[in-house]
Amino acid sequence: MTTLPIQRLSGLEGLDRALVDPPPAPELSGFRRFAVEFLLFGIKEARACLFAGLFFVSIFATPREGLFGISRYDLLLIIAIAIQIFMVWSKLETVDELKAICLFHVVGFALEVFKVSGAIQSWSYQDFAYTKVLGVPLFAGFMYAAVGSYIIQAWRLLHVRIRHHPPYWMAAMVALAIYVNFFTHHFIGDYRWYIAALAIGLYARATVIYRPFDRDRKMPMILSFILIGFFIWLAENISTFFAVWHYPNQIGAWSTVHLGKWSSWTLVVMMTFTIVASLKHIREKIYIPK
Predict the structure, then answer these.
(1) For residue 2, what pLDDT is reported?
(2) What is the percent of the chain where pLDDT is above 90?
(3) ∠ CA 38-41-43, rounded to 5°
(4) 142, 238 in Cβ contact below 8 A?
(5) Is residue 220 predicted with pLDDT exceeding 90?
(6) What is the separation of C-alpha 34 from the centre of its chain, rounded to a whole number of angstroms?
(7) Sheet holding 161-163: strands in order across?
(8) 89 has which bridge partners?
(9) What is the pLDDT of residues 106-152, one digit of tens each?
(10) Cα distance between residue 23 and residue 25, in whole Å
(11) Average pLDDT value for residue range 238-243
(12) For 259-277, what is each residue's pLDDT tens digit?
């Protein structure tokens, strides 16, 4: 009875080792190399999205009326906790990484409570749940935690390193400004574009070095933030289509989430990255010019 879990664990670790350090193929060139690197990059990205993928599949697969007498929001919380336990049990995440992910959950949940409050009503969770607190189902924080989990996993799988990262205190101040603006723009104006301009200047020289196969590739760090934000925006469109939550303009009939939300998610990714960068084993791979 005890050998099966061990075999499963070995299989998962073996898969990850194969993805992290695939056998090099120096003879590949031209289109063949591009095709192999593109394929491996896609596989690694899918693997890095394991938590987010399982979570969003659960969102799509769970009927709105729930299952087995358990409401949808309550069931999604149970599933999210089970996925998180599995990630740590299978050593796909460390305890320190779990602590960072819990921080994302708290930060995201606090923002959700503010956004659904009666005075703001940016969006709403209309279905019933026992695990709703101040109008927000507890599973909602896991949507922010999924972004943190992706960045942590991608960092390891793609051998990510950062060159010319800005000083941590500057990055932290920008991240704080991003978070505060999500609250204050309802009262004193939206300064996201000023913050974005500051962030572009701050990260202008920062470069992401990653390894999809056996050679390092480079990408401007700002571009990586924008691309991740775009895919989260797509996931948000799918989630609202399945009525997980609604924006005010979607209550009568579904419509595409406003393109401006892409910029919001890009800033959230930037903020999330700053938190992830505080992890000890990740800091070792970040170069900050003196």
Answers:
(1) 39
(2) 10
(3) 110
(4) no
(5) yes
(6) 27
(7) 161-163, 207-210, 217-220
(8) none
(9) 888 888 888 888 777 777 788 888 888 888 888 888 888 888 888 88
(10) 7
(11) 70
(12) 777 888 898 889 888 888 8
CB within 8 Å of 95: residues ≥ 6 apart: 88
As a three-state string, the secondary structure of the chain is: CCHHHHHHHHHHHHHHHHHHCCCCCCCCCHHHHHHHHHHHHHHHHHHHCHHHHHHHHHHHHCCCCCECCECHHHHHHHHHHHHHHHHHHCCCCCHHHHHHHHHHHHHHHHHHHHHHCCCCCCCECCCCCCCEECCEEHHHHHHHHHHHHHHHHHHHHCCCEEECCCCHHHHHHHHHHHHHHHHHHHHHCCCHHHHHHHHHHHCCCCEEEECCCCCCEEEEHHHHHHHHHHHHHHHHHHHHHCCCCECHHHCCCCCCCCCHHHHHHHHHHHHHHHHHCCCHHHHCCECCCC
Residue 208 φ/ψ, nearest 5 degrees: -95, 125
pTM of the full predicted structure?
Answer: 0.81
